Amino acid sequence: MTGRFNKRAILKRTLSATGGLRLLESLPTWNGLLVLNYHRIGTPDGSLFDHALWSATQEDFDQQVRMLASGFDVIGLNDLRSALDDLRAGTGRAWQSRRFAMITFDDGYLDNFEQAFPVLESHNVPGVFFITSGFLDDGRLAWWDEIAWMVRTSTRSQLELSRRWIAAPLSLAADNREAVISRLLRRYYRITGHETSAFLDELADATGSGRAPEGTADGLWMNWNMIRTMHASGMSVGAHTVTHPILSRLSADEQNLEICESRLRIEHELGDTVSALSYPVGSRDAFNDVTRSALSQNGFDWAFSYYGGHLRARSDLDRFDIPRVAIESDVTLEDFRSCCALPHVFARH
Fold first, then answer.
1. What are the residue boundaries of the structural domains of the chain, listed by start?
2. Domain 21-140+217-346 fold
3. Which residue from 13, 68, 228, 308 has the highest number of Cβ atoms inside 10 Å of its Cβ?
4. What is the mean pLDDT of residues 130-157?
5. Distance CA 117, CA 113 (A)
């Protein structure tokens, strides 16, 4: 207990207990666009990688998609402009409900194809898959998964990095390793692009695990044939950079390269235009005016952030900061229903 009441949690419990949430779900309580973001579908099951990336089991994802399909117009990237125009006009002529939802995935994990794609097809709704092109091409381990891998495979009892990274030693007791991974990821988010290799190399030495060997990421990512199959079936595909850096930590030339090359690579494989990008990490400080300029110069129409929120009807649109809500493994069906019924309360960061 923190001693501080969580008003949103109290409201959610009250609505659920009184049946108010069911009533709200049946009423046109809001109009707008709610964009949900997932990463992985399934369960960690002892994985050495970052457990926080699993968003839902396939069963939970199926329930969530069923709920969205019954109460929203679920759209893909090709529908986005029409939906937003409809919201701004306030007519509702082009769409059934003017309550729009978009289901998005980041990175390009294999389970997106094996677990998520069949669910989306079974409910006849589109999904949007933002692909980190370099992961598919090189089969490399993502930096967050490598950080988790180094901590989980360490045989040491304590982690001590130079003070430039972490001020005090960290216990590697079994029940503390998840917290250590989280701490290290938060530190990584704050360093510049030129420091990342030094950080990972020092962590490799400090854990005694070394850098993850070649082949560690085998079977982790989709391949381009899978991406083409999903695209041909009506799924949308967008860019998520080449190597998944925090863009705002890079120079203008480096940002432009990550943004431009990811788009060109995906377009080459699909033979179709890529109109949207989702920002790696996606916090407010993960992109900047330099990023926006690079997006504009490279012909992107949309970019998606990742710090909560939704678009209300007739609200001012920032096409390079379309908000998304994180769906994580601790989100219950009740949480999900609350977010869909009252996103202005529950979809905030």
1. 21-140+217-346, 143-207
2. TIM Barrel (3.20.20)
3. 68
4. 97
5. 5
